[in-house]
Each structure stands twice: as structure tokens, then as C-alpha cells.
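Q: Got a minute? One more chain.
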Amino acid sequence: MVSDLGYGLNSLAHLALLLLLLTVRKPGVAKHLLVLATATTVIWSTSLITLLFGPISLSWLLTVDIVKQLAWLLFLASCIQTNFQSLHHVLRRPTTLIILAPACFALASSYFFAANPAWSFLTLIVLSLEVLVLLEVVYRQAGREQWAFKPLIIYLGAANVFEFVTYANATMVNQVEVGYIAARGYIYFLLMPLLVISIRRIHHWGIDIFISRDVVLHSSLLLVAGGYLFVMAVIGYAINFVGGSWGATVQIILVVMSFALLATVFLSNAFRTKIKIFITKHFFANQYDYRVEWVKLTKWLTRSGESTSDVYHAGLTGLLNAVQYDSGLLFKVSKSGIECIAKASQLSHADIDEKQIIMLNKLVEYSGENGWIIDTDAYLVKPFDYEGLKLDREVLKQWNYQLFIPFMQDNNVWGFAVLAAGDKEKVTLNWEVKDYLNAVSEQVGTFIQHHEAAQVVAENAQFAAFNRMSAFVLHDLKNVLAQVDLILANAQQHKHNPEFIEDTFETLEHTKARMEKMLKQLTDKKVVEDSVNDEQYLSSVIDEVIKQRCSSLSPVPKLHLMKERSVVVDKEKVANVLYHLISNAQQATSDDGEIDVVLNVDSAQNTQLVLIEDSGIGMEKSFIEERLFKPFDTTKGNAGMGIGAYDAKTYLESIGGKLVVTSEVGKGSCFTLHFPIV
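A: Always. Here it is, folded:
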């Protein structure tokens, strides 16, 4: 009777596995041979139940054991190689025939010859050893998949070690011990979960069986109860072993407390929830394929438009797609209250009223403290799950949305989304869905917040560009004012000179053009780029700058023409650059000093050189490296803008040239301008 219970449990367990395997639609040699081996195990175990078939003869025992081993050997033969296309390919391989030969010979000999049982015992020992050898081969060649094959190896390895011990003992005593036979059913039954684990792990077999989480939960609770009862039994056995006794009172107390404890275990919702979460986390695949969901969400967000409204709508739609909902609202929280910034709603009453706004403000305040995602439907049923949250239940019953998902920024609620399933199936907000939605909301929130930050940066860049443009306009305005001052300074002395009057009108015309250009820049809020490049000889430009702009200051620069080639430049821009540098040299040099402007050609680098040399106060090396070309950094106080040298360097680099500065404190400076010769 004891052995029948073990074989019966084993038959039922393997039958359940067989039915699960038959539900798998994917074809494959491994699946078919595993179905065959499992079905053979079911028949083997059932045939050894004496309550159904009567006493078991030795010949029948040996025959069904050999058949069982033959089925598992065939399965292992298919595992040695993974590219079999059919059962025929497995059987025609010489290695498979060698593996199956001992079992086939043993079956055939039992029908044609009256063999001594000792030979059958020896045959089964050989078959057990053969299985163990094949297991070692399969495990070694599994490579990176050894983790997946390990439960299978343990299942068949432990079972066949027991078979080996059983028949090795039978060979020595010339009979099979009843105790070994009675224990086999229990051993196979207890080892079978390892086979199930391995089947789920080995993906290339094409087998994907499913076990209900609720079944595992209840099995775990039964295991807890069984463990508790086992502990109680061990304590009772220990008391009896040392010669004591329970005592009637102690027995009654322990039995009552046992049932009370078991009832607590089974009825405790918190305990069941913890067990279920533990099982789900550690024994089951995730409900969501996070890699696929993450890629899908990222692709959706990257397809959003450039406008802020498109970004808001893309973020809300990404959240809806994550849980397959069709309606939702996206809100932004500010000091003035909450503002709906995106809507994707299929609901007939999507708008919210004042009472619902008050409720949303309470949800924002509550989420701001803990960052929780809130299921408003669950709140109606179990408000104690959200301790400290007080909502108007009448308002909540009229609320069309189920999920409240906050977006956090610097530990504050930046905004939130409310989602409704509509005609779709509602999700249950368990721990995994919460983790998943937290990850999705983090991604969506970061995406939206980065877009807003980029908008702020773009606006700041526009302001910076406008400020920079204004600085150049003011700098040009200062130069225009210098020209007007020059005219006024010479007017009293030369106002009756026709040539002076002609030069004055020419200068005023030039000044008018400059003023119109600056006015256009201020109107269009950008630097005018319509410069005209043409072929110029720099000596004429320098001579004009010295005579018209720099002759009123001392020392007056001297032009030295060593060698010259024409260059293609914007005459007006080059004139401004030269004026800035010459004017700076004049301001840094005493009236009795010297300023020389030398033109030469560097044939090796094919550049026209303009050297502006002065005998002024000079500059330190650190000043040249750190401050000279830094915009808006000036040593002239309110008299300068600090962009003359910066403008010169920037322009030369824009046309492919460069500006080189050498200086020595107390001895003077030299600015060398390199203009490329085309």
C-alpha cells in the first residue's frame, strides 16, 4: 500500500507534465522524444501499482524497467546533437544505435532465452551507468547552457544512481529488495520538479510550458503546512525516543495551537501576498519583457514632433501604450495650480470639474510625499492600503480615470497623468505593474523635462545671440562716433577748405551707411551677414584707415610696404579690424612712441602678412592667453567693449587666416595678421 501511494503520485505528476507537453504546438525532435519518455514513465509507474494490477512479478518488473531506460536513453541520444530534423535522423546515427543496443538486446533476450535474473540485474546496472555517462557528455557539451541543463542532469542522475544501487544490491543478494522498489515512486515524484525547471530553461527544445502562479502559491502553502507538521512530528518522535510522553494536556494545547497557526497561515492576506510576490519574483518570468517595452517606448518618443505640445502628447501616448489603455490626461503642476497640457481621451465626459481638481490636488500632495502610483478603483475597495489619503468617495465614484501616475523632479511632483482603460481590460496594480509603470513614467518624465530644459537653453541662446549682436552694434556705434568727433575736431580749422568739406561729406555718407546697417541689425535682431568679398590690396585699406580714423591720435602710425599680394576680403570688415588693432596700439603707446604697420608676404604659407608693431607698455603672457581674446573683458573700463581683439581673431579665422600676438612688458607688442592669398 505504501509503494502504491508513491507510484500513484508519480503517475499523476508525470501525467500532468505529459498533458502540458501535449499543449505545446511547436514541433521538434526533443519535444517528441521527451513526450515519449514522459509517457513511458507514466506507464511504467502505473504498471507497478499493485492495487490496480495485482502483485508484480520479477520478470515484469525487469521488463518495464528496461523499457523505461530505453525511452530515456533515446531522449538523451537526441540531446547530444541539437540539429536533428526528425526521429529518423536520430535513429540512423551509429552513435544512437550503440547507445540503444544494450537495452534492445536485453529486451529481445528475455523473450527468446530463459536468462538468469542475475544477468538482467547486471543489464540494468549497465543501463544506469550508460545514462550517467550520457548525462556527463550532455552537461559537458552544453557550454553556456549548463545552467539550463543542470536540473535535468540532477533529475536523471539521482534517479539512475538509485537504480544503480538497487540493482547492484540485487546482484549481490540475488533478489530485489522490496524497500528499494517501494521507495522508487516517491523518489521519482520528488525529483520531477527538477525536470520541469529544466524544460522551462532550455529554449532551443521549443517547449514553453506554463504553470499557474496560483497553483505554485497553494503548493507552497501546503509545503509550509507540511513542514510545520513535520517539525511537530520530529518533536514528538524525539520525546518518545528519550522515553518521555506528550501528556494529554500538552497534546491538546499543541493540536489546538497547530490548527490556529495553520489557519493564520492560510487566511492571512499579508502572508499570502508576501509568499506570492516572492514566488513571482524568483520562480517566474516577468509579466513584461522590459527590453522590448523599453525599445518600443523609446521609438515612440523619438517620433514625436518638435513643438512642446507634440512632446506632451507623445509622452502621454507612450504611457497609454505601456498598459494598452486608450484614454488619459497629462497635467503639469505649478505654483498657480495644475494645468492640463495633453489629452488623449475616448471618454464621453473627459473634462474635470472643480471638485475633481480638489481631489487631484490631494493626490498630488500625497504622491509628493512618497511618489506612489495610485489606483483609484482599489482605493474605493481598500482605502487602508493608502494610509493618510482622504478622498471624497462620492467624487471618486464619478471619476472616470483609474490610475494616477506622478512624474517626479527633485523629489517634487513635476506633473502627473491619469489613465483610464475605457473598453480595454483594466490592469491590476500589483508590485510588478507598479515597478513597470515607475520605470515608464521615469522615462517619459525625463523625456518631457529634457525637452523643456532644451527649450529654456534655446531661449537663453537667443538672448545671448541678441546680446552679442547688440555688443557689436554698440562697438560699431562707438567707431562711428569717433569719426564724427574727428570731423568736429577739424571743422574749425578746415571748414573753409573745399577738400575738407568734400572729405566730410564722403565720411558722412559712409557714416550714414554704417548707421543704416546697425539699424537693420537691431530691427532683424541678428548680425547682418551680407558682406561683400572682393579682391583688395591691403596697403590702400590701411592707408585709408590711418588717414581717416587714426590721424587724430598720437603717435600716428607709419605704413611700411615690403611686399604685397592681393587678397579677397570684405573691405569694410577688414578696415574695422585694422582700426581696432591700430587704435588699441595708439592707446597703449605714449605720444613720443612709435607704431609701424608692415606689409610682407610669407611665400611658404602663401599668406599676406600685416604686422602692427608698437613700442607701448606691452602685455604679460598670461594676459594674452587668458584675457586678450575673451569677449567683453576690457582693461579700459567704461571706455571699451572688450570685443575688438576678439572680433579681429574671429574674422581672420573665418576666412582661413589667423592672428598671432607677441609682446613683452615695457617694450611693446606685435599683432601679426595672416591673410590667405587666393
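A: Confidence is low (pLDDT under 50) at residues 206-213, 637-641.
Q: Perfect, thanks.
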